[in-house]
Design goal:
Elements: E1 6-9, E2 19-24, E3 27-33, E4 37-38, E5 44-45, H1 49-68, H2 125-128, H3 135-168, E6 177-180, H4 201-204, E7 208-211, H5 231-240, H6 257-260, E8 272-277, E9 282-284, E10 287-290, E11 295-302, E12 312-319, H7 321-324, E13 333-338, H8 355-370, H9 398-405
Antiparallel strand pairs: 1-2, 2-3, 4-5, 6-7, 8-11, 9-10, 11-12, 12-13
Length: 412
């Protein structure tokens, strides 16, 4: 790609003895297979994907500084297969490095959250048709959980070595480092043994750690609502040192730098995120876990300043990728969750909330789904409409809305 100096890509690939497409500036891409690796003593060992990517990334950082010096900025994107499955028949697992195959990662299996192996007949059909996890499937879910933890031990090594390298090169204090992931994961939630492909919190939430110049140490910011779309705008603005004109018109995301640097308050920041997904059929671990009509778009609303019942909502619309990939028709199914009351999304309250609330959520969703560039940054504040009479717009009273959202103490 233009302006990329070095490129090493395996498209998912294999954990052991992997092959990559490699390229550098003015050099045509070639296929490279790693199968002759040695340890620090020169003894042969299996080639492991995470280690290869880590070594290549650190080598490029060192090469860049040797050629250009420490004053020339650089961007390194290090993406790993771990802890994805090594796909195949039966019950595929993540593959740890040979030296971590028997590492102790705890005897407990996957977390038994309230929605683990739970039946939810008012959810999307993929959820409501799931059969209970068998004893074998539950044991395989736990085995998968431990295999992923073992594969992440090599990611820990890569992170540690990268930080040490930046420190040894004298640039740790002038470099921003971000650690995140592409998606969450389920381990038996709603009776689905594994995977992502869903609009629920266990699939949506990802880790996000950032360190660098101007950022306070050891601070947890759970009040900033952000997503991957914001990563590049934020990095570009941090690199430029500016808050204006640093986001290209082709990018939909927001610059989170002012919030991260405590130069702005949350009042003008978005309180709603767009969620969108499309794919196709997936059958694993003896369960149907994805389908064409699992294509969804949704809103994730978090705003403690809103009135009770509207502070932590999720609204989802489902359609069929083959018939309506751009959501021009009415949704096939709708879900709504009040996550303050129902953090594990066990109760879909969409069938019993007033239609006016769903209409407003749908209108906001359409705006975010259709926006582009700067227009996306102008529709990121959501406020439930309420008339001065205490009535929600339409015929339903605010009492009815609160009752539907489950925020009234009925006993009193």
């Amino acid at each position: 790609p233009q302006n990329v100096d070095r490129w090493l890509v395996n498209g998912g690939g294999d954990y052991i003895n992997p092959s990559f497409t490699a390229a550098s500036a003015e050099v045509e891409p070639t296929r490279v297979r790693f199968e002759n690796c040695t340890d620090s003593h020169g003894l042969p060992i299996p080639c492991y994907s995470t280690s290869i990517i880590g070594n290549a990334s650190i080598a490029w950082i060192k090469d860049h500084l040797e050629v250009h010096g420490s004053k020339t900025p650089f961007f390194a994107y290090v993406a790993l297969k771990a802890p994805h499955l090594q796909d195949g028949p039966g019950f595929p697992m993540a593959i740890p490095a040979p030296w971590y195959q028997n590492a102790t990662v705890g005897k407990e299996g996957a977390p038994r959250t309230p929605n683990y192996n739970a039946s939810c007949p008012k959810h999307h059909w993929l959820v409501r048709q799931q059969s209970p996890l068998s004893t074998l499937e539950s044991s395989k879910v736990d085995e998968l959980y431990r295999s992923r933890l073992r594969s992440l031990l090599s990611v820990d090594d890569l992170v540690e070595e990268t930080i040490h390298t930046l420190d040894d090169l004298g640039i740790i204090d002038s470099t921003y480092v971000i650690f995140t992931s592409d998606n969450g994961f389920r381990f038996g939630q709603f009776r689905m043994p594994e995977g992502k492909w869903s609009p629920y919190e266990h699939s949506l939430r990802v880790p996000f750690w950032i360190r660098g110049p101007g950022l306070a140490e050891g601070i947890l910011r759970d009040d900033i609502l952000g997503t991957h779309v914001d990563l590049m705008p934020t990095l570009l603005c941090l690199a430029s040192g500016s808050e204006d004109g640093c986001i290209p018109s082709t990018m939909d995301g927001e610059n989170l730098a002012p919030l991260l640097l405590n130069r702005s308050n949350l009042a003008a920041h978005r309180n709603v995120l767009l969620i969108e997904y499309m794919s196709g059929p997936v059958v694993r671990y003896q369960h149907i876990e994805d389908s064409y009509n699992n294509t969804f778009r949704g809103l994730r609303l978090i705003d403690p300043s809103l009135r009770a019942g509207f502070q932590n909502l999720k609204y989802i619309e489902f359609t069929d990728l083959r018939e309506d990939w751009n959501f021009t028709k009415a949704p096939l199914e709708v879900e709504l969750f009040n996550l303050d009351r129902d953090p594990f999304e066990m109760e879909n309250i969409a069938p019993r909330v007033p239609a006016e609330l769903l209409v407003q959520l749908r209108q906001m969703l359409r705006k975010l789904f259709a926006c582009s560039g700067e227009s996306c940054r102008g529709v990121s504040i959501f406020a439930p409409e309420e008339e001065s009479s205490g009535q929600f717009r339409g015929s339903s009273s605010l009492h009815d809305i609160k009752l539907a959202l489950g925020i009234l103490d009925i006993s009193s």
